[in-house]
Fold this sequence. Notes:
Residues 1-77 are annotated as: Disordered. This protein is an alpha+beta fold.
Amino acid sequence: xxxxxxxxxxxxxxxxxxxxxxxxxxxxxxxxxxxxxxxxxxxxxxxxxxxxxxxxxxxxxxxxxxxxxxxxxxxxxxxxxxxxxxxxxxxxxxxxxxxxxxxxxxxxxxxxxxxxxxxxxxxxxxxxxxxxxxxxxxxxxxxxxxxxxxxxxxxxxxxxxxxxxxxxxxxxxxxxxxxxxxxxxxxxxxxxxxxxxxxxxxxxxxxxxxxxxxxxxxxxxxxxxxxxxxxxxxxxxxxxxxxxxxxxxxxxxxxxxxxxxxxxxxxxxxxxxxxxxxxxxxxxxxxxxxxxxxxxxxxxxxxxxxxxxxxxxxxxxxxxxxxxxxxxxxxxxxxxxxxxxxxxxxxxxxxxxxxxxxxxxxxxxxxxxxx
Length: 371
């Protein structure tokens, strides 16, 4: 019994110990669970941080990406002070549809620009400029092509050479001399590039250009006859100090309205003094029919009378103008000079040096100097 009692006592003693051990195990388990949870949280947080870091790193990398290498800056040549002078002058008498052909080339008028430099023929002088075009066959890139060559005429004068414009062509029977403003033209001051930001009224310009306010966009609203007038315009000039060659001309232009086609010819009342013979020759050449002979002769006689009357009136007008002209004005006309400028040769433009001519037009005659 003693042994049994001892065993019982021993068993009872072990039971509490097992409970404590269980409690301790439970605590250990709870602690381990807690540690595991904390570990999982740390792991999860670490994983999130690990996932987040690359994004931050990527964003940081984008911000810190070196800039793209910049291309070399482009340098544009500085424009010359009078570089656009020739373009600002209206090309009088040029057909509107041909203007694009005129400006298809980058013409160089550095000779005109240099003329205004010290030592140049236009330096320090009051100058009036007008432009026109001369269609010519000229060589370019090993071929000869029809080219509308822009030319600029400089008139050295203390006052405008004329306030009028002439309208004349082979197709027109009569010549018209009209005020410039009737054709929307006028002399206006040219402002050099370096002075474009200045107030125009403060500038004392010595360069005046012939300008036209008629725009191509508005041509559609004009009658064809009005449009053609612009194409037949010629800068007008009258020199009262010398007799105009046209005042003494004995030739009349004949445009006889015959059928089936008009008769175009010239009749000189001094050389072709026999109108009968002149008319017969036209009939033989089948330019005129026999039944129109008398009407044609009367038509020519009337044109001759008109031309002779015009010559007399022109001589009388010149004589009267000279009588009323001041000495200062006479001196201005005597010292007036015309300079005709062609574009200088460049690799990008046709060479026009072989077609230069001193002739300006039927009113101005020939230039004093061609450049």
